[in-house]
Each structure stands twice: as structure tokens, then as C-alpha cells.
Amino acid sequence: MFKKDNFIYGCILGMLAPIVGLLLLKYYKFGMLSFKEVLQFIYYQPGHGLMTAGLSVALMMNALFFTIYVNGKKDQTGKGLFVSTVVYGVVILLIKYLS
After folding, report:
1. Helices (DSSP H) in 1-99: which residue ranges?
2. Most buried among 6, 22, 43, 67, using CB within 10 Å?
3. Burial letters for 27-66: b for 16+ Cβ neighbours within 10 Å, e otherwise?
4. Domain tally for the chain?
């Protein structure tokens, strides 16, 4: 898994890693609620403070993978992870300020 050096692989990994981060946050913080209920709670909370915090924590998974791949000299995969992280960041900002 950590030996591939491919931009597309990095993009796919970068799109899936925050979902894993959200699942970890869900089970740690909201164990008794379903995933759908957690997403509704986060989205409808006034000010979207918890959503921004939760998605930011989820992006830490990308930071972890980015560090692993860049330190392992897998720069193409690191670029894909970086692009995915930027896309997630822009989406988070758009959700926060346009809704």
C-alpha cells in the first residue's frame, strides 16, 4: 500500500482517508447515533462549528498519509493527496460560508 507512487492513487486515497477520519470521529464522539444522524446533527448545528471541526479532524488522515508518502520519497502520491486535501478544504469553506 505504501509503495505505490502514482498521482491518481494519491487522489483516490486522499478522497477516502477523510471518510475514515469521519468514521473514527463518529465512533469516538457519537457512538450511540447512526452515521446519518451524526451528519444531520453536524450539518444543522447553528454556525456549523462542529462540522468545520469534524471535517478538519478528518483531513488529519490526509496529513498523516501525506507525511508517510513524502518521507518515503513517493512524491506523485503525495501530490495526489495534496490536491485532494485542497479540494476538501475548499468544499469545507464553501459549506461553512455559503450555507
Report:
1. 7-29, 35-44, 49-71, 75-98
2. 22
3. eeebeeeeeeebbeebeeeeebebbeebbebbbebbeebb
4. 1
In a domain? residue 1: no
Q: What's the pTM value of the predicted model, to 2 decimals?
A: 0.79
For residue 2, is it within any domain? Answer: no
Q: What is the pLDDT of residues 28-83, one digit of tens each?
A: 888 888 888 887 887 777 766 777 777 777 788 888 999 999 999 999 999 999 99
43 domain residue, yes or no = yes
- What range does the domain containing 65 cover? 7-98
